[in-house]
């Protein structure tokens, strides 16, 4: 995990930092006499979360980022933002995708405080319900604003949770399974929020492939690889079918989803680890849960209680 802090009132220094942290860009100051920029970044594999505070009006002209770039505005405004044939303005509460990864963009930040979250585009394809070799290529966002206010709120909540309850907790941020799960959750939230090219319904071929042999291969792969960061695409590849086919197989035969089954398998491993844990040696519910990819303690406790009829702390302490 990488943490960065930047604080400068030198416009040239700020431009150099932004060019290194994002992509090559030119900036200009529309507020004579002040140009202070403060930026804090935390990262995990495939994802960076930045908090920015600019006390001046800054024009920007940015080359393609090559990443999904989300913006949540807290205070101030972003004006004249444009890419391709799109031009828009954003204010407090707005959550938007700045531009497709392959396009440059430009605009003007007006004394704003805002969040920038960036993620690798292939994360969308890995978590989407689409075939790895789909002719349409990687999953892309087809709009820069969420489909509804509720979708925007959920995405803001997800970004905040990743920032405050994963990246801000070294004990969790150091767990590869936790960061992989959090990154996948963020990507899924992006797909749920924005219009995109993912194919969600199984085809006739997918339905034909959703037989018991597909399910057996998928179950065996999950059992053998539960400790690793897995996506539905990984499970589908191991079963030699599309993502939609493996999802349909789980629904048809088990009335569940591949990821829900993976969560149950990991929960059973966490249960065994809690039974074997030693609190006097420093073992905690949080560390055991994080080992198996559960980064929300409250959610883990709820799932555990539903499965085993008691809180995980009782198992840890032999109650």
Task: Indicate the mean pLDDT.
Answer: 90
CATH topology of the domain at 3-121: Jelly Rolls
- What is the percent of helical residues? 40-55%
Overall SS class: alpha+beta
| CATH C-level class of the domain at 3-121 | Mainly Beta
Question: How many helical elements?
Answer: 13
Chain-wise SSE layout:
Blueprint (H helix, E strand, L loop, with lengths): L2 E6 L2 H11 L3 E5 L7 E8 L2 E8 L2 E6 L5 E16 L2 E5 L4 E3 L7 E15 L2 H6 L21 H19 L2 H4 L2 H18 L10 H6 L2 H14 L6 H8 L3 H12 L3 H19 L8 H7 L5 H12 L3 H5 L3
Antiparallel strand pairs: 1-3, 2-5, 3-4, 4-9, 5-9, 6-7, 6-8, 6-9
Helix pairs in contact: 3-5, 7-8, 7-9, 7-10, 8-9, 10-11
Tag the structure with descriptive keywords.
single chain, 319 residues, alpha+beta, Jelly Rolls, Arc Repressor Mutant, subunit A, nine-stranded antiparallel sheet, 9 strands, 23% strand
Describe the model.
- With 319 residues, the protein is α+β, with helices and mostly antiparallel strands.
- Among the domains are: 3-121, Jelly Rolls (Sandwich), CATH 2.60.120.10; 262-316, Orthogonal Bundle (Arc Repressor Mutant, subunit A), CATH 1.10.10.
- Helix content is 44%, strand content 23%.
- It has 13 helices and nine strands.
- A hairpin with a 2-residue loop joins β6 (68-83) and β7 (86-90).
- The protein is globular and about 65 Å long.
- Mean pLDDT is 90; it is low at 131-135.
